[in-house]
Write a structure and sequence with these properties.
It is built from 2 helices and 22 strands. It has helices at residues 136-141, 256-268; strands spanning 3-4, 9-15, 26-28, 35-40, 46-53, 62-65, 69-70, 76-85, 101-109, 123-129, 147-154, 160-167, 171-184, 187-189, 192-194, 197-198, 207-210, 212-213, 217-227, 233-242, 246-249, 252-255. Helix content is 7%, strand content 49%. The chain starts with a strand and ends with a helix.
Length: 270
Amino acid sequence: HLHVCVYAILVTLLDTRTVPGELKWAASPAEGGWEEVSIMDEKNIPIRTYQVCNVLEPNQNNWLRTDWIPRSGAQRVYVEVKFTLRDCNSLPGVTGTCKETFNLYYHESNEDRESYIKESSFIKVDTVAADESFTQVDVGDRIMKLNTEVRDVKVTTRKGFYLAFQDVGACIALVSVRVFYKTCPLTVRNLATFPDTITGADTSSLVEVRGSCVNQSEEREEPKMYCGADGEWLVPIGGCLCNPGYEERGGACKGKWCWLQQSYFSFVHS
């Protein structure tokens, strides 16, 4: 692949750290499961988090569902979850009931007010485990062992989607949830302009994009590039040539005569 190094632009659809006030996501059961709590982040800014720690009773099934998230034309979204998780071995007497994972689900929908969604209509994305779990010692030392996990989800059938987090008996805090998609940024290549383009639905998909010639230029061969799944432009083909009397400078076609005049002008006045 010929890479054109222009980095992906990340477009945020949800970031719990920037939501003013309470999140008020739907928790099921309404009492005794996930609960919304305000905490201070590492910069001493208050953020809204969700916590649950039912590690003594078996068969936990606590669901937490986000509000409806419009996908804004995205076909694949990324879910970044930052969370802390308690090490089960550091909790006495919870053998067998304490878990160290949670499950992430999604549900596509055109409705921004689906109040009741059956668990069976959610599709599982993954079981998420912690790289680092914390112990009682860390709590005493106020050490936040923050885990960051990112999962991607194909969303192509409806106008938006809901995410859900299922707790099966962990001692966990969801510190922040961010949902974003990637685009290949506006760029000029071989005197052709390629627009900001949303990446495709699959991790291997290439979106073919036709470029348009910059001012004062003509097609030499149809300009094309491919927008890769990571938001990088790949495989530039073709391009444009400056019209007679113009020459390429800095990705544009500038008049030769103007350039000569400018040079002469600066020479005379230097």
